Amino acid sequence: MSESSTDNTHDLYAVRLAKLREMRAEGMDPFRAAFTPSHTAAEAVNLFRDDTEEPVRVAVAGRLMVMRVMGKAVFAKLMDGSGLIQIYVRRDEIGEEEYKHFKKLDIGDILGAEGSLFRTKTGEVTVRAVRCVTVAKALRPLPEKWHGLTDSEQIYRQRYLDLIVNRDSRARFLTRGRIISAIRRFLDERGFSEVETPVLQPVAGGAAARPFVPRNNALGCEFYLRIALELYLKRLLVGGIDRVYEIGRNFRNEGLSRRHNPEFTMLEVYQAYSDFRGMMTLIHDMVQTVCRDVLGTTRIQRADGVDIELGGTWREARYKDLILEATGDADWFSRSKEEKLRAARELGIEVNPELEDFEVTQDVFEKKVEPGLIQPTFVTHLPKELCPLAKLTEGDPSTIDVFELCINGQEIAPAYSEQNDPLVQREMFEAQAGEEVQKIDHDFLLALEHGMPPAGGMGVGIDRLVMLLTGAESIRDVILFPQMKPNPG
User: Best label site of 118, 307, 311, 463, fewest CB within 10 Å?
Assistant: First the structure.
């Protein structure tokens, strides 16, 4: 925001503050405890019928967005959560004093209006007001009407302004809520139980990520904000809850990007006596059902006009085959790490030479393969080093029974045939942890030793799914209040 616009904002604040003092001096309460609308804006508009003889009386409330003074009358528009409705205010209908106060209102003020519905000469359903009440005085102005709110810093830091002036943004977040409700409905109808597991955990397990480390003063020790939901949900499989899911926040103390935020929402779902192929069916049916319920279609379109078809049968491809295709090297997996690094550079991919051998291949996958997976694709049988929590593939102990669902060039959902052998699980945990034994969740291993049924498990990145279904370009556009540096002001 420029210095001149900041000064202008301060000037407008001073003017509005003076109006507030004037209203109070005249005995008005500009911050009412309540006003009870009879209808939302949309309900009131839909209620009107041209052939109705008796006038329909309504009470509506919302934020003042438009006001046109025309001598002894004012046309104004109020916005509530459902949309806009026009009100018509005449001096001879609401009285001299109330009309005088009404003309002094500012854009952004919140008010209630009562009156009967009619249709104007231009065809707009309007409330002919007989009473107007200021219920909240706005001391700060809204962003300028014609310029809107385009500064990304202000959009994320002052999301409430974004929701007021950007209809697309408001619609996106309302759609997010409907998507999550549809997911819950889908799983509940199939016998899954929703649960809540700890956010503060003694071991940061279930994924390879750097955690946030708060201190619990009451217990005198450090805990971790969870990086995954997995290990507690699998304890519930041991406990006999055979179909279980949780939708909750995870926290990873890592980088920010268009697809990554340190605080994000995950769905994790586990089904006893299933496997990763059972999870294929579950995610396929769930995404298609959610799309139909929320969007009314299974076809979505990107900003560049490319259609993504979520209906029908989805492609399945093995990880190794995709790597061989992308590198053009049939001997890729038998080559040394140094040869892979050299080949990656020739493909235009910069890879950190400090990475492990399997991580070099994964970097090639993420930079060369994944961006091209636009239509729904199950990438299956990943290298075993990428996940210590899945079962090894029968006949190929170098891979695991896993898929990653990729759509629009990004991972949406990984799923596993869950490892339920406690001895194998311990070995894999120890190999992953190396010398950092404290990273091993021994309580989880103790639970496995009591017997966990075979199971399929899956995680779905809710934020990324919402990005896909709403056409958002950045994860910050689907998170109401993304992490930002504290405002120095």
Answer: 307
